[in-house]
Amino acid sequence: MEDIIINNLDYPILTASTFFPLAGAFIMLFLKRGPFIKWFALATTVATFIVSLPIYKHFDKTTYKMQFVEIHSWIPAWNIYYKVGVDGISVLFIILVALLSILCVSVSWKAIQTKTKEFYISLLILETAMIGIFVSLNVFLFYLFWELTLIPMFLLIGVWGGSQRIYAAVKFVLFMLAGSVLMLVGIIVLYYAGGRTFDIIELAKVNYPTGLQLWLFLAFFAAFAVKMPMFPIHTWLPDAHTEAPTAGSVILAGILLKMGAYGFLRFSFPMFPHAVKVFFIPLLVLSVTAIIYGAYVTLMQKDMKRLIAYSSVSHMGFVTLGLFTLNQNGIEGGILQMINHGVITGALFLCVGMIYERTHSRMIKDYGGLSKTVPVYIVFFSIFTLAAIGLPGMNAFIGEFLIISGAFKANMIIAAFSIIGVVLGVCYMVWLYYRVALNEINPITESSLVDLDLREIATLAPLVVLVLLIGLQPNILLSYMHVSVEHLLEQLNNSLQLESINAYDIVNLISENIW
Amino acid sequence: MDIGQFFTVTDLFGIAPEIILTVTALSVLTLEMVHIFHPRIILIVASLGLLLAGAVVIQTSGDEQILFGGMLALNQYSMFFDFLYIFIGLMTLIFSQGYLEKKGSPSRGEYPALILFAVIGMMLMTRANDLVIVFLGLELLSLSLYVLVGFLRQDHFSNESGLKYLLLGAFSTGFFLFGAAMTYGATGTTNYNGIIFAITNKTILSNIYLFMGIGLLLIGFAFKVALAPFHMWSPDVYQGAPTPVTGFLCTAPKAAGFGALIILFNRAFVEIHYQWQDIFWILSVLTMIVGNVTALVQSNVKRMLAFSSISHAGFLVMGLLILNETSISAVLFYLVVYSVINLGAFAIVTAAEKEEKGLEFEDYRGMAVQHPWLSAAMTIFMLSLAGFPPTAGFIAKYGLLSAAVAQGYIWLAVIGVLNTLISVYYYLRLVVNMYMQKEEGALIPSYNMLAIGLIGLLALLMIVLGIIPGYLLEITANAAATVS
Question: Could B432 and A78 be called an inter-chain contact, meaning their C-beta atoms sit closer than 8 Å?
């Protein structure tokens, strides 16, 4: 076992951080309803965060190998193991999940008044599922966590959402499932093709026939692309985001969208390199389409939450653009941008949620002159707006810069088009800021506006710190992923050299019956 | 006349569970006759009979035993099914408690007795090593069910469905019997071993007769387990039958039907099974799609569950199509999970049903507020039916899909998962109604502590089996190994 480093701490740190929230949720089942529930949920999320911190202290940045690995026999009949571990690609997401979960509890403090117990149970189960996805080293386990995110999110949207919540919730589940059931068939085929194993590391070592790779890539792509969401199948996202309660939107934008991109890095790149090589140009085009199309649609939005939701389509286009440049800059930028997007969009949803809590309106036209009525709020809102635009010194600048420089290496024309997205990004954010923060004071909502209280400031402050910290010292995060990304590219290029593929045969390969 | 020439003591020991159940059923009828006993005593006697029969099944070694001169074959496979039937019978008895009174019909001793007879019939079906015994079991099962379905004599729907079931069931019995006769005509025997012998040694009198025989037998079975296009009877019958009987109807006969079909094709017709694979493929896809698409538009929970059970039967045909050790084991696992879910779900519907209410989706609005535990259990059952991890439904589906992919049936697997996707919509509708709709005169389920506790246990079982399925997988693998 040279590819992994077994956990040498005296306790199973990854299992602990994964299942801590679930244990909390289980205990919560038997607690009495009341204000104590909130405190318990907060304590659980904070504890999870603290439990996960030693991962960063003990993480070895000089190796691409999986670390803190735990292996236990699980379903011997099908050769399934419980196997968890992290490398430089996944390690940062754990802290993001843990942090955003705390903020989600905090922002729901007053917003969620009904069925609070069920709400926090769903939230905690969701947290376990999300951490589980990033630590799984077994495809079966991965799929289990992948699907486990659906039902809590379905409930979050459907029970505590806005007026169109049921439509949005059902749409969300059906879209997600449409992708993931195809992935399930892909996983089963992979299991037999890779020698009856579900081990992600073992599966990545197998050299699959090119025809099979194309099919498997498409099967996995179905799940990842829906989750991202990539351009033509993004329509669930605005509905889900808009109708979800604030905590739901934050989790959707912050983590769930990243699962698709993470899937590309964990499965598609190492396992199906030929297919990636075949499809990367169309995927780059799709990414740029998402960037520009998403930005244009964002410009037109009248609803603040919907606006930020559509801006996610554009931002996630940048992430896929970075990943499919297939070079170090692009991929590192992509991963960094995933985190940045989680921080910034999460923060913007928090901001909108806080203001919505007061006025019960998400319409831009109901606001104006907030800089005079709620100055503290506007300080935060300005910081996050600037960050979203990609102001140098803030985190998104680094991410976008890396992505675009990677894109120029990969394909000039496509990279040039992506710049349009950056410009449009400035337009919609500044225009939103102008209409909401500046302008005349709008009498409709003026009376109900109160400035942020201490809890809300405490909720937003960590994100401000992250925005500036990553913006000024990106190496804090980038240093974690360097070696892993290098190894990933090595894997990709090595297997491509073994056998060269004529891209014009794609059609033949796909239509030919691989069985 | 020497009775010993017909059977031996070993034979009698082999059918001890059947004997015990028969005695119990008859004594239940007798108890009813003398009018001294409380209905609860009758229930306890019937349950004890079932438990005793289960205990006897445990005592048997599980080695392959051929009884009554090749009529019955006992092995781990039949033991597995015996347990399943006893479990289903027991659950049905408990969940039916108080239901008949609630529907304004006097509690009667025939009810438990008929369930016991049905269990005996099913046991014979999976123990059979001869078409005649399968037929006997099938008839015993069907006759009991005809009466059970029409048990609410004051209720029009119940009467209608009883009659419908009787007429169509009689048809299917005719098909089955005719198929058995044709097979006999072709091979000169109804015994499985004899049929194998005839087929392998090519001593078949007429290939056409054999082909028609198998086809007719298949149609007979397809009626009983409701495969499209022979499923037309099932929604009406399921809807009209007393709810606990519906729960029984969509679990037990399906298990018995598939159990008997697997033996039939894996023993008697194993050499020519490959010729039937296309037919099974079509049956499977058609049943899945018809069941699912029709379930989408139902507004009645019982009808929805009826159509969903049709689509699940389509899924199970996958296992019949592949028919190797893995797939048989997967079918057995699926049957257990599926039975547990349906028993639980119908138990909740039974509890919720009140006069004319409690059967439509709308009636479940806002149930989660007043009955969080019951709603949570129902949600687990629905998610499990839809095959969401980490419930047992996912493991069951995964087993079948995996067996299909291993044999190269990738497109069948894709059709299967896409059907799962469709099914999620109607399963979630119930969850949506329970959790997300405002309540309007929320249901007041009639509480029965024992039943509620059991529902909770069944729901918990679905989660536990979804996370650690290893133990049950081992049992089903062993059972499957004895027939292949």
Answer: no
